[in-house]
Amino acid sequence: MMRRYVRWTLAVVLALGGIGIYPATTQAQDAAAKVETAKTQDLPKAEALFDKYSEATGGREAFAKIKSLSSKGTISIPQAGIEGDIEMWQADGKMLMVIEMAGVGNQTVGFDGKIGWQVADLTGPQLIEGAMLEEFKFQVQIDGYQNAAKFFDSLETVKETTFEKQPAYEVVAKKEGLPERSIYFSKETGLIIGTMGESETAMGKMNMTNVTSDYKQVGDVKMSHGGEQKMPNGIAVKMTMTEIKLNVEVPAEKFALPDSVKKLIK
Question: Which CATH superfamily is domain 2-262 in?
């Protein structure tokens, strides 16, 4: 669950620490090295790793029964000494996330099923378009990785490695029009413990590391309650969810576009 939260707090983070962030330049070389490594290792198929992940978190059928979700938590940027609160609602393929950070202001990110947008005190209203919107459509799913094969064009296990000091398998996911990403599965638990790769942002492509942790039981499924996004300039966004509720009633007007966003639509 935390994978989608950490990807959509960039407006605040970039405004605070965008200077010094640089795009990844070695991804093609890294991909070639991973393919060569895969040839020398006896690795499980990517599909098997996703099946194990699904089983470890409660199963695809259990997630299919989740029609809506609300959650609350905290967010911090330790390097800037900033802390705040985060709240999120999802239903019918739509999403609204509100972040309030003392001394920085508010940021609201939404998706009404077609239009992605964000409004931040530091940056004003913006539409989420192009590759960012395609990425967003995946991230707003309650757990898109349960059905990753339907979204990505290809999934390949490339090597056995270590991610955040944990033995892991690395799966490279590719989709036309989006930067490729690496997904890391814990060898011990089968859970997804993070991702790495380029992300589309308002400042261009950036190499991000997203750490997923603290899986807890919520109803019939397990969801991560901790997440951290690490950027190349050393800044990190940390999140902890304190409450997750499933199949709650969410008013349709919750996902209505703000007037400031409507003015951006041509």
Answer: Lipoprotein localisation LolA/LolB/LppX (2.50.20.10)
